[in-house]
Amino acid sequence: MSRARVRAVSSNAEYAFTKPNRESITLLAGLGVEGDVHAGVTVRHRSRVAADPTQPNLRQVHLIHRELFDEVAAAGFGVGPGQLGENVTTEGIDLHALPTGALLRLGEEAVVEVTGLRNPCPQINAFQDGLLKQVVGRDEEGRVVRKAGIMGVVHRGGTIRPGDAITVTLPDLPHVPLERV
């Protein structure tokens, strides 16, 4: 994983499906991305707030692998960094293979703990009709496969920029596979 890098960083202070790319973003410990609408100790995603606004925010930072864009492009969809609502677009790391609790060091200081899989919502089809089927499917055994990135919480704050290295620290065994959060 020595080639793992941050490809792009994105944030949005307003509720919108996409997030504009930035030159840098600052992660705040226990909160998320400074100035992003989803930052906070408790849930900020509208559906989660409607269900129970006191839930802990396990979705402070959304990460997607850039390689997903190549995959959906092969099916005729054009998607770029920030367009699926992620804060960090990565490259050279299989995010979905990480276990729950893995720590991602982004750049020199920031550390994000992986909490689980993003559960893609129907807004993806509003962005590009049919795209949801490209990022959610089923494996050979009929289990749901979610490919729209992972979520995490900020353990240590810091500024991250495109080109920053990503290093992974795995939790102790046994590893717990990612589930939707």
How would you describe this structure in keywords?
alpha+beta, globular, 181 residues, eight-stranded mixed sheet, 13% helix, three-stranded antiparallel sheet, single chain
Task: Explain the layout of strands and helices.
Blueprint lengths: L4 E6 L10 E2 L2 E4 L3 E2 L12 H6 L9 E5 L1 H7 L14 E4 L11 E4 L3 E8 L5 H5 L3 H5 E3 L5 E3 L3 E7 L1 E3 L5 E4 L12
Parallel strand pairs: 5-6
Antiparallel strand pairs: 1-2, 1-6, 3-4, 3-12, 5-11, 7-8, 7-13, 8-11, 9-10
Structure commentary:
- 13% of the residues lie in helices and 30% in strands.
- The protein has 181 residues and is an alpha+beta fold.
- The longest helix has 7 residues, at 67-73.
- The two termini are 25 Å apart.
Quick synopsis:
This protein is an alpha+beta fold and 181 residues long. Helix content is 13%, strand content 30%.
Percent of residues in β-strands:
25-35%
Q: How many extended strands? A: 13
Task: Provide the gyration radius in Å.
Answer: 15 Å
Largest sheet: 8 strands, mixed
**Residue runs with pLDDT of under 50 for 5 or more positions:** none
**Can you write the helix and strand succession as a string?**
EEEEHEHEEEHHEEEEE
Helical percent range?
10-25%
- Alpha-beta classification: alpha+beta
Number of helices: 4
Q: What value does the average pLDDT take?
A: 95
Query: What is the rounded distance between the termini?
Result: 25 Å
Biggest sheet strand line-up: 2-1-6-5-11-8-7-13
General form: globular
